[in-house]
Amino acid sequence: MAGTDRRRDMKTGGPAVILIEPQLGENIGMAARAMLNCGLDDMRLVRPRDGWPNPSATSPASGATIVLERARVFECTADAVADLNRVYAATARPRDMTLPVLTPRRGADDMRQAVAGGARVGVLFGSERSGLQNDDITHADAVIQVPLNAAFHSLNLSQAVLLVAYEWFQAGVGCQPAYIPNSRTPAATKAELMGFFNRLESALDSCGFFHVAEKRPIMVRNIRNFFQRADLREQEVKTLHGIVTSLVRGPDSGRI
């Protein structure tokens, strides 16, 4: 359906859309088109297979060039989400992680509430071939799953982006989310959380906590998910750093 009207104000902003290892430029272009239809313009690409910029993305974008021009490339998921406070993982596969599972509609409401509170949010989408990996999902605070035919649950990349982006757009039509200003310090960014995770895991390695090497990746993911669910603030992460310092170095070393 064609409905572009250049005389109208362009809606932009909203959550970042993070495409992890997208394969085809055409799919990136169609995802950009889906984003701009719903007023999103922050596209982030993690290790695009065919490099970036990719001329194959231009035609499928159907005029959503502002999204393609602003797209940023990152080497890893951690870098792509470093400045964000809340991240959602769009995946259809069951996971062993204890994260909240939301529909796109419920996820959109949650995102709106977070943004109203000053948070920066983003949504992870996996590659066309294999979707999101568990290590990518460790950066997420919640999972978004689309309730579809259980016997045939297959969406292409741009369809998945459009579903989530559409619900975000609709959640803001004609209403403002209820929000009570929070007096706590700002939410911790993913970069701040990753700094704490890396320090904690290093300390746990040193004290022999991960004594079964084969179980370490699963235990690390579980520990990270535990802290992700806590909705930590900047000051709380600093306090946790002080706790680790005190435990590692002994009395009087963790004062902050």
Please state roughly what percent of the residues sit in beta strands, choosing from under 5%, 5-15%, 15-25%, 25-35%, 35-45% or over 45%: 5-15%
The geometry reads as globular
How far do the termini sit from each other?
A: 58 Å
Q: SSE order, as H and E?
A: EHEHHEHEEHEHEHHHH
Q: What is the CATH class of the largest domain? A: Alpha Beta
Kindly identify the CATH topology of the largest domain: Alpha/beta knot
**Unreliable residue stretches:** 177-181
Q: What is the overall pLDDT average?
A: 88
Number of separate helices = 10
CATH architecture type of the largest domain? 3-Layer(aba) Sandwich
Tell me the name of the CATH homologous superfamily of the largest domain.
SPOUT methyltransferase, trefoil knot domain
The secondary structure category is alpha/beta
Number of structural domains = 2
- Order of strands in the sheet with the most strands? 3-2-1-6-4-7-5
Largest sheet: 7 strands, parallel
Total DSSP E strands: 7
Helix content: 40-55%
* Computed Rg: 20 Å
